[in-house]
Design goal:
This protein has 338 residues and is an all-alpha fold. It contains 13 helices and two strands; from the N terminus they run H-H-H-H-H-H-H-E-H-H-E-H-H-H-H. A two-stranded antiparallel ribbon has the order 1-2.
Amino acid sequence: MGTLARRGLLLSLAVLVAAAAFHCAEAAAARLSPNYYRRSCPRVERIVYDAVAAKQRANPSTAAGTLRLFFHDCFVGGCDASVLVSPLSSDRSPERAAEINLSLPGDAFDAVDRAKAALEAACPGVVSCADVLALAARDLVGILGGPRFPVALGRRDSARSDAADVEGNLPRTNMSGRAMASLFARKGLTPREMVALAGAHTVGFSHCAEFAHRIYGYRGAGAGADGHDPSLNPEFARALQRSCAGYQGDPTVSIFNDVVTPRDFDEVYYKNLPRGLGLLASDAALWEYPPTRVFVQRYAGNRTAFFEDFAAAMQKLGAVGVKTGRQGVVRRRCDALD
């Protein structure tokens, strides 16, 4: 067999394997249903809501952290609660120990653990941690004033969690729009869905280290006289420089992702981007990249469109790589592999 023929065969096999994996994932997602626990745990949604609402009242940063937790879980091996496993409960380094996951907030993990504990008291061994996380993320968006939407249930939890699986599967804060679109496409998500999901940055905060390269000694073209990224609003850049001045000595120093309406789930995040008020380079990239700019413009001027697309994108995200039936397990504790 000639070299070209072998390459053609290998390419064909790769396409077939990818297609088979895609159809398997589709089949698993098709088994999910909002009524999955109707008989086995009929109060599942109320129990989760009560637990996470109480946590949000006590710690208002819980919602944004839980949204991020859900995203990080689904993008690495699918929505299977593998990111919830604590390094203290595992013999090997789980996903949570990966460098990019070290800043995931403890309040988000605690919200899921509290909801799971309440469910174990009411319906022992029935509801998966993956479903708890999906419901918690949805509920907390609604609590902040965002859209409410049905969540299909029936996910199983992963029986493994490995930090080595994380690299290359999560977007970095310095990624270009093109690079992010390529990553999201590998997860089956379109640029439109990517921009809608980025709207989660309407709440929450980022540590100064994640955008310090934009405000101190910027090395790109057109750097401002005081060393900031020229795509940043100059006054905003100077305010960030002052606020983050001591970040190297105190890595917990952080800034709201949306400095205009930081506690509201709304469309103002998108309005900020053309004004140079996008905090992260990856935020600014959504405005700079033409295929995504059109959706930034759409959502900035239409809250209803944003809410509808965000809800649809969250539902699609929640079906990425799900495990059902014997593909996974129902863990009794979310922070440990049973």
